[in-house]
Amino acid sequence: MGAFCKLVFSLMLILTLIYAANTEYIRQKIFEEGIGRCNFYQFKCGNNKCILRSYHCNGRNDCGDNSDELYCSMSGSKCPTNDYFSCRKPNNYYMCLNKSRKCDGYNDCYYGEDEVNCSPFGHMDTLSLMILERLLKSKLYVCLPSYEMKQNKKENDKMPENCLQIN
């Protein structure tokens, strides 16, 4: 395996470990807080209740906290505060949603624009992103599984050519 392939493999391994750690953190938060995911045909209310998407902006308080009717029939695309972003609705109307709903893995907007141009690491916390960035900049190499460092090589010099395959 060439040096480039080993570097790519090392980076993929690091990304997988970071992703797995974040996935477990998110699962734990969901379990602790009792927050469930809404299905694609549902709207997620501000109180985390799921209602049918067709109930969103129907003039009735289906969520119980009125979040399904908040900012539903605006004729312009400007939201009242910077804490919100606008989504286009049918008939040239707009609705405003809290920015926390952007890139959260849910299609909250009718046309899905809240999930467009999102980072593949959108759900990673800031600390994990900082660690990933430092790892990528440090050119840290890791010997592949079933490989070990050659003798007389420093631990921080795990360049692929310094690794030996072990049986």
UniProtKB/TrEMBL annotation:
Record-annotated disulphide pairs: 38-50, 45-63, 57-72, 103-118
GO CC terms in record: endomembrane system; plasma membrane; receptor complex
Subcellular location: Endomembrane system; Membrane
Membrane-related topology note: Single-pass membrane protein
SUPFAM superfamilies to which the protein is assigned, alphabetical: LDL receptor-like module
First-listed, main subcellular location of the protein, grouped into a coarse class: membrane
UniProt keywords, alphabetically: Disulfide bond, Glycoprotein, Membrane, Receptor, Repeat, Signal, Transmembrane, Transmembrane helix
Signal sequence segment: 1-20
Annotated protein name in UniProt: Uncharacterized protein
Organism: Caerostris extrusa (Bark spider)
UniProt lineage: Eukaryota, Metazoa, Ecdysozoa, Arthropoda, Chelicerata
